[in-house]
């Protein structure tokens, strides 16, 4: 396994000719929180002019596709809703199309997930604040909903011991499906001393208490790519995955046999690529991007001559 190649202007023709479809992670790639990364809306427009199909794949479970559309528009991107694949949507479509789910989901999740669940006509309970009361001895009297037939976990700003207790208790039924949107450990927060726990921390808490592993839908798992293939022509060897995180974005590229480009405007640094090369874990050693570039701003500038 060799080190990733820097995507230079000299390699641009070879790179551009290698793909028809290009998957973009969003945070740390196209924007950082609410700030657009310079020139990325022009990059998307340029790629369309060149006949390439851009698609957007994010593990963030806090927004519905409609809410993402609003964010894209606000930041100056021209994107259509069917080009967006977020994990709130993945969870709803998995329940509806794969499980043919007819029951009620216990949802540790966000308003964005509720919106997608409503669109797919999926019954759910559990959202919103559910604070703990009383002593631990009283928690065994927490009312449970007998209609719950699945537990779904995404990002939930209202997470509480009461929600964890309910989730883990429902999962004592070994036949109860247990689905998680993603397992990103923390939220990408720019220029801050704070480390904000991500969905992965919530999923781990439920898994540990329940003694079961969740089925994870988001990157690096292939479900995202399988879903895209149902809507778009996606030839893996003619597709590139662009991301800022090695263990989700680039690993998805590896799992789905796509070309990969790491951008250095988000979570992973070049030193992380080197750490992966030297890792004792073979999965890490495989998780090396084909190319890296400082930012998509630079790629836009290179492409302006095309
Ligand atoms: Mg990212």
Automatic annotation (TrEMBL):
Presence of the UniProt keyword 4Fe-4S in the record: no
Binding site for Mg(2+): 25, 27, 244
Alphabetized Pfam families for the sequence: Hydrolase_6, Hydrolase_like
Gene Ontology terms for molecular function: metal ion binding; phosphatase activity
Positions annotated as active site in the UniProt record: 25 (nucleophile), 27 (proton donor)
Cross-referenced InterPro entries: HAD-like_sf, HAD-SF_hydro_IIA, HAD_sf, PGP_euk
Cofactor: Mg(2+)
Co-factor note (free text): Divalent metal ions. Mg(2+) is the most effective.
Cellular component GO terms held in the UniProt record: cytoplasm
Keywords, alphabetical: Hydrolase, Magnesium, Metal-binding
Residues that, per the record, bind substrate: 219
SUPFAM superfamilies linked to this entry: HAD-like
Family indicated by similarity: Belongs to the HAD-like hydrolase superfamily.
Stated name of the protein: Putative phosphoglycolate phosphatase
């Amino acid at each position: 396994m060799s080190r990733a190649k820097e995507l230079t202007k000299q390699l641009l023709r070879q790179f551009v000719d290698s793909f028809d479809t290009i998957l973009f992670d969003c945070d740390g790639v196209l924007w950082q929180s609410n700030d657009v990364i310079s020139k990325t809306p022009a990059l998307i427009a340029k790629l369309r002019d060149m006949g390439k199909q851009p698609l957007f794949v994010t593990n963030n479970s806090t927004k519905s596709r409609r809410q993402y559309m609003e964010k894209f528009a606000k930041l100056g991107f021209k994107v259509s809703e069917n080009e967006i694949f977020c994990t709130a949507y993945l969870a709803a479509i998995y329940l509806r199309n794969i499980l043919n789910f007819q029951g009620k989901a216990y949802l540790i999740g966000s308003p964005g997930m509720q919106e997608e669940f409503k669109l797919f006509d999926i019954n759910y309970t559990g959202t919103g604040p559910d604070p703990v009361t009383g002593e631990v001895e009283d928690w065994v009297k927490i009312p449970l909903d007998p209609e719950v037939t699945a537990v779904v976990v995404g990002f939930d700003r209202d997470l509480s011991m009461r929600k964890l207790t309910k989730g883990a208790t429902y999962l004592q039924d070994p036949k109860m499906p247990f689905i998680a949107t993603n397992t990103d450990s923390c939220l990408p927060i720019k220029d801050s001393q704070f480390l904000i726990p991500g969905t992965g921390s919530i999923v781990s808490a439920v898994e540990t208490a329940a003694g079961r592993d969740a089925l994870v839908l988001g990157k690096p798992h292939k479900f995202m790519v399988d879903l895209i293939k149902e809507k778009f022509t996606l030839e893996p060897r003619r597709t590139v995955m662009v991301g800022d995180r090695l263990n989700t974005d680039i690993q998805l590229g590896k799992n789905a046999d796509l070309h990969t480009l790491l951008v250095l405007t988000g979570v992973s640094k070049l030193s992380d690529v080197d750490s992966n090369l030297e890792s004792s874990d073979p999965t890490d050693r495989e998780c090396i991007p084909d190319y890296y570039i400082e930012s998509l701003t630079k790629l836009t500038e290179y492409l302006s001559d095309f």
